[in-house]
Amino acid sequence: MSLEPPTFAPEADRSTGAPRVDARRLLDRLERLRRIGAGHGISRIGFSAEEQEGRALIADFMAEAGLRPEVDPAGNLIGLPPALRSGTPVLMLGSHIDTVPEGGAYDGALGVLGAIEVVQTLSELGLRTHRPLAAVCFANEEGGNGTPGMWGSHAVAGSLTREHITAVDVLGNPMERLVGGAGGDLGRIGEAAWPPGSIDAFLELHIEQGPVLEERGIDIGVVTAITGRVTADVEITGRTNHAGTTPMEMRRDALAAAARLVLAVRGLAAEDRIVRVATVGRCDVEPGAWNVVPGRVRLRADMRDVDPEALDRGVAALEARAVAVAAETGTGVAVEVADRVEPAPCAPRLRRRVRAAAEELGLSTIEMPSGAGHDAQIIAEAAPVGMIFVPSAGGVSHAPDEHSSDADVVNGADVLLRTVLGLGRAGAEPRRRAH
Ligand code: GLV
Ligand code: MN
Ligand code: MN
């Protein structure tokens, strides 16, 4: 990847002195972060050693931006202005740097690095904002270790549930150990919640993770609302037996039953149109031997919709299908909701500011909902939120070939910068960078 500053920046804009982020620094930091957890794609699973290594780098970047990096009791890494007086509301910017297994380099990372870049640019230009700025790197947004995701943002919003606190990861580690390893303290988790009014607003810059912006040739997506999602764990119990000797009519094959359920989950969206999208992305088979009729299968269904009632209907339909498949296959099927995240609207005032910021930079915009989940939808429980999307090449995300062009990355950060300034500019005129 080239670290040359992109050449897309309109010179006219530079000549008027309109503030722009330091493109080279932002792209260089993205590249440095990309190397952590790199293999086939990027695996920086929440609470893993790789995520911790990434967070150490982010803490350095926060310090370079003049912020004081702190880890809260939930394990969130938060960069605060050094002289912040307690009780002063902040404008919070950020996202996450954990990834799904074998994910991409931009999902979350762009929002964290963009936030830090905006803070540093403003400080170097001597521009003050109407609110102090905080840059946040939320812990475990993805839930890539099998725990419910959005852990860190739930802690900040004060909406962690017993299911979050008592979750264990795929290796059996309890949250206490995971959070402690990230520098947090589950015993003080309540202190991670920000008091009402202390977050004036939250802005998250993110890649679109879908094809719409690229297909339509649009620079910036102004997010209207963020999709809701429900995940349900399905356990199918059959009988383990010999693959060569067990007659077909005597089998209670848990995987054959699971196959029907996988297609049923898909059908909830594809044919039945009960929910917008529905996926089974994980399926564990026991004992998992080629010459054994599988005795137990666990799978997780993910259903998403902007309408919370559609999510209710999706769960009910899955439960009904599970009863039918159990009867048809002589297995036992149990369905349990694992996690639910409500849809969230973005604040109209912030949407207007994002759109105006993009237009002032000569960038094209459309309004669009987010089909992916984001920390912003959790923070929406505590403060108005806004989201800025940039195009994803080929609409690919949660995959190794996730990519956004340098120009789009920098455009997004410039829009974030201008949105922040547009929310209330006070203080000095731009002056030249110190370096
Ligand atoms: C979060 O990245 C999601 O699954 O949408
Ligand atoms: Mn993601
Ligand atoms: Mn993300």
Q: Tell me which oligomeric state these chains represent.
A: single chain
Total domain count: 2
- The helix count comes to 13
Please give the CATH class of the largest domain: Alpha Beta
Architecture (CATH level 2) name of the largest domain: 3-Layer(aba) Sandwich
Shape: elongated
Query: Got a strand count?
Result: 19
Query: What gap, in angstroms, lies between the N and C termini?
Result: 24 Å
Portion in strands: 15-25%
Q: What's the CATH topology label of the largest domain?
A: Aminopeptidase
Uncertain spans, ≥5 residues at pLDDT below 50?
Answer: 1-12, 425-435
**What helical percentage do the residues reach?**
25-40%
What hetero molecules are in the model?
glyoxylic acid, manganese (II) ion
Cα-atom Rg, whole angstroms?
A: 23 Å
Q: Could you report the average pLDDT, rounded to the nearest whole number? A: 94
The structural class is alpha+beta
CATH superfamily of the largest domain: Zn peptidases
Structure description:
With 435 residues, this protein is α+β, with helices and mostly antiparallel strands. The chain folds into two domains: 23-226 and 343-425, Zn peptidases (Aminopeptidase, 3-Layer(aba) Sandwich); 228-340, Alpha-Beta Plaits. It is built from 13 helices and 19 strands. Strands 3, 4, 5, 7, 8, 9, 16, 17 and 18 form a nine-stranded mixed β-sheet that branches. The protein has a four-stranded antiparallel β-sheet with strand order 12-14-10-15, covered by helices on one side. Strand 3 and strand 4 (77-80) form a beta hairpin. Helix 4 (109-125) crosses helix 13 (406-422). It starts with 10 loop residues before the first helix and ends in a 9-residue tail after the last strand. The chain binds glyoxylic acid and manganese (II) ion (MN) (2 copies).
